[in-house]
Design brief:
Strand order of the largest sheet: 3-2-4-1-5-6-7-8
Number of strands: 8
Number of helices: 12
Helix content: 40-55%
Order of helices and strands: HHHHHEHEHEHEHEHEHEEH
Radius of gyration: 21 Å
Strand content: 5-15%
Length: about 300
């Protein structure tokens, strides 16, 4: 799997994507921290953190940490302390996706609400795995939309992955079950199963995800080996609500945060890390096939402030 150390290219691109928004957390930090840390400065910083979707709990924790550790600091030390506080929250959820070798099909069930970019994320993830030499099978578990099946098939052809689907309207659990059996027969390394987008408060559709898990358990009690929730960073605090509900309903084991190249400020990842502690696998920072990157806490914290990562 990928090295945990971020490339220089990733850091540059991430800073460019996050800091193209006005009113960003890192704007004029040198001015904000020009004098000794005061309550006025902390109040302004609190506002910026909240506007950046960091959330109330994480914001209060970060500001309190600065109040204790950076009082009387100069500009450089104050910014460094803030960067360190952000990184401290994020580091516990930095956890690369690690598909074990030689264990038979390793199944990733991809879930999320409509419009978060699930199918595109699946295609990009399949591309990464193929680049690492793994065989991949894509399962079209979103049977509600014929277009979703066609889109996933196009990705399978693009990245040289195998593909399993049934007719629109088929039982999603049956599709994923068949895909897993097929992967076993073909000695496929990784199965990535798409699912229909659903709101986190749609009980019937959430029960469908539970059914998929139960059915897979009949083939392998460990499957699915990863339940990956795809979240749209531009949805702000709604993304946190989605993460809470999906975690409770289906036991999310990993998160991919997409659309950081749009209007998102990125702070929602800190809120999720602080409240849920679910491993963050990848971030999506663009539309290109290579724009799905393993999450790195140091790179992300520094990019939020438009700064270079701190020296190890």
């Amino acid at each position: 799997m990928p090295d945990r150390a971020p490339s220089a290219g990733l850091i540059t691109r991430l800073r460019q994507r996050l800091n193209k928004n006005s009113g960003w957390l890192g704007r004029d930090l040198s001015t904000l921290f020009a004098g000794p840390l005061s309550e006025d400065i902390l109040d302004e910083l609190t506002d910026r953190l909240l506007l950046a979707d960091v959330g109330v709990e994480a914001t209060l924790e970060i500001v309190d940490q600065l109040r204790r550790s950076a009082s009387g600091s100069d500009e450089k030390a104050g910014i460094s302390a803030l960067q360190g506080a952000l990184q401290t929250v994020l580091e516990p959820v930095e956890a690369p996706l690690a598909a074990p070798a030689d264990t038979g099909p390793w199944l990733i069930l991809v879930v999320g609400v409509n419009g978060t970019g699930k199918t595109t994320t699946i295609g990009k993830l399949a591309h990464r795995l193929r680049q690492q030499g793994k065989s991949v099978l894509l399962a079209a578990g979103d049977t509600f939309r014929a277009a979703a099946i066609e889109q996933l098939q196009a990705w399978a052809e693009r990245v040289d992955a195998q593909f399993v689907a049934q007719k629109p309207g088929a039982d999603p659990a049956a599709v994923v079950f068949d895909a897993y059996e097929s992967a076993r027969a073909r000695n496929i390394d990784v199965v990535i199963a798409d699912t229909a987008g659903r709101l986190h408060n749609q009980a019937g559709l959430m029960e469908e995800l539970k059914k998929i898990k139960r059915v897979l358990g009949k083939l392998d009690e460990q499957a699915p080996h990863e339940v990956m929730l795809v979240l749209d960073a531009s949805q702000g605090q709604n993304a946190l609500t989605q993460a809470e509900e999906f975690k409770q309903a289906v036991g999310v084991t990993g998160i991919t945060l997409t659309k950081l190249d749009g209007s998102a400020k990125g702070g929602i990842l800190i809120a999720i890390a602080r409240k849920l502690g679910v491993p963050v696998r990848f971030i999506g920072i663009g539309e290109a096939i290579e724009d799905l990157e393993p999450f790195n806490a140091a790179a992300f914290a520094s990019a939020m402030l438009d700064r270079e990562p701190a020296a190890p």
